Amino acid sequence: MKETRSGAAELTHDFVELSEAGAAVRLPAASALGLRRGHETEEGGEGMRRKVALAAIAALCTGLLALPARGGGAASVRAVWMEYDARYNTFWQQLKKEFEAANPGITVDNVVVPWNEGHDRLVTWIAGNQAPDIAIVGTRWIIEFNKMGVVQPADTLLPKAFIDKFIQPALEARINGRLYGVPVALSARSLYYRTDLVKTPPQTWQELLAAAREASKSPGVYGIGVSGKKFAELTEYVYYLYGNGGDFFVTNPDGSYGRCRVNDAAGVDALRFMVDLVNKDKVTEPNVGENDRGTLQDLFLAGKLAMIETGPWFGGMIQERAKTMPFAVAPMPHNQGKPQQTLLVTDSIIVFKSAKNTDAVVKFLEYAYRDGPRLEFDKDFGMLPTEKSVARDAYFQTAFYKPFIQQLPTAKPWPLTADWSKVEDVMWDAVTAALLNTKSAKAALDGACREIDAARGIK
Amino acid sequence: MIARAASRLTAEERLAYLLLGPALLLMAALIFYPVGATIVTAFGATDKLGRISGFVGWGNFRALGADPAFWQIFRRTFLWTALGVTVKTTAGLGLALLLNLPFRGRKVARMLTVIPWAIPYPISAIVWQWTYNSQFGLLNQFLTTTGLWPHPPAWLAEPRSAFAATMAVDIWIGLPFFALVFLAGLQAISPEYYEAAAIDGAGAGARFAAVTLPFLRPVIVMGSLLSVIWTFNDFSVPYIVTKGGPMNTTDILVTHMYKTAFQFLDFGPASAIAVITFVTLLAFSVVYARLYFREVV
């Protein structure tokens, strides 16, 4: 019974998506086919039963034949958008409306998917030959999709003037000199702190610890948030790793990634520092194993954290959900003696090779990438500008955005490797094991590197 | 030949085949083909899209066998199933006996019992995930303010408590099914048997052992068999409540299979896990059904 129920739930879900896409397939209503009680008795006998059966089969066939019509028509763009927050659907629906009005004959089908499910949903669609025409993806996923051979190079599809609009750090999706995705969202991570609890923003780990200790003295407040629950990205370990001059892989002379190196001194010290924050200094929330980035943000919004490391979108969330909270933003702290460096993350729009109406896709992208909608997107979802012209807007010249933009030149992206999903999963387990004190930082990362190297075929 | 065979069929039989046809076609497309394709993939080397590029014989199975993490998950799935089914069956029986007693508000009580089962599983799982949250959740708030447990654990943060908490959600969701099925079984037992037993001097315990249990046996057997299959394959509860964490300590075969396929894109090993799950459940069902029918006949 359970299988039936969950199956039905999935079907309903798919139907809703189809309906949203404006291409729902509907079977003729039973009443229209004469499938009413009493009909049989009125005419009686087998003849009527057969008619009803034939009608039912005809209805089924009509339904089946109608299926390929999904997404058909003159020109349509089927787009999958990963959800940044609740207003997201409205943004794309509005853009769709305006675009369709300006471009009669082209329709846009929007499907919005939560980030945490996005990767797996896209893979399922790709594997089932149901890839959309375009999709927003974490740029770190592109190399994997490219290895599947399903992504079109963006620089052949879009004019040079289009590509030239972007600021350099945003053009992360280059593989072997080709650009495979156009940046849609850019963020650098920074330290948010409560100005009533932290007087001077910490620049180094040592200052961070001191500030966290001080803030923890306030009742009901934890110094700094650390998350130990798997999330769509390996926060916060990566902040400490990059802030300690560490990296995930050894870089080969040809630029490719070699062995895993998180178990070197930089990697181990980064994790050890986090473990100490949690278990020795006890300046974090006590339940690190149950928090991911999302619930940590909730803790900060509830006034229980003095500091949190996250992206520019969080500023908007504070203004919306904790209006009176006094806060400021500072560059990500680093280990004393190591250069300051934070994580830079881009999300990109990719065009799938299976896209039929590339002209329509290009038209839509050109429409979506006008300065107006781009500024609106960045404002709505708290992202940094990806285009030079948008970056010049007065909106980004504020004290809030300054630390984010100031860190961009030295910020480092995630490694682009096809096995990233596996690497990230193994790393999460290692970090959680160390945070929960079931393994030492060194043992956890040694084990992780063995597993990562084996998974990547490095002996 | 076919025409001759067809001509031997009566009109009604022909209509029957015609009506069965679409269902058979759909079953072939939606059940037989995927199962067959999964079995073939289990013996194949695949690319990131699940396309088979060659065959590796038992390679995928051998790789799983050599992976200690797989065995851990395999054992945990059995523990998960055994615990879940045992608790659901016994507590379900207890609940059914209670609901079978005449008392005021019995109808309301029966209706309330169904609620956990009537709510879509993912929604229950999400609600429980929040209930367990140690900072915002209702459970720890309740335990601490009432003084029942001044320092309750952060349920989903540690491996052991996360497993127990996830198990509890599965039981909470599955219990009403047993209560209802057992209640239906209880109501089918004629009161005359109880009267006869009472006349023979049987007390409540004896009546339960000599009348209730024997009559309920077929229901218990079928109910627990279904529950074994559902619990073994329960995806939504562990996946939504903990995503298999912390450190994969609440992963069971079906969540591990999903991650292997759709997170790591290792479709060969994932299909091998699917085949192992299928064979395990098939073997269990066959043995169980044989034992059951042998005794009944």
Automatic annotation (TrEMBL), chain B:
Annotated localization: Cell membrane
Bilayer topology: Multi-pass membrane protein
Source species, domain of life: Bacteria
UniProt xrefs under InterPro entries: MetI-like, MetI-like_sf
Main subcellular location of this protein, as a coarse class: membrane
Keywords assigned: Cell membrane, Membrane, Transmembrane, Transmembrane helix, Transport
GO cellular component: plasma membrane
Entry's transmembrane regions: 15-35, 78-99, 111-130, 162-186, 207-232, 272-293
Boundaries of every ABC transmembrane type-1 domain copy: 74-288
PANTHER family (alphabetical): BLR7065 PROTEIN, SPERMIDINE_PUTRESCINE TRANSPORT SYSTEM PERMEASE PROTEIN
Protein family membership: Belongs to the binding-protein-dependent transport system permease family.
Protein name as annotated: Sugar ABC transporter permease
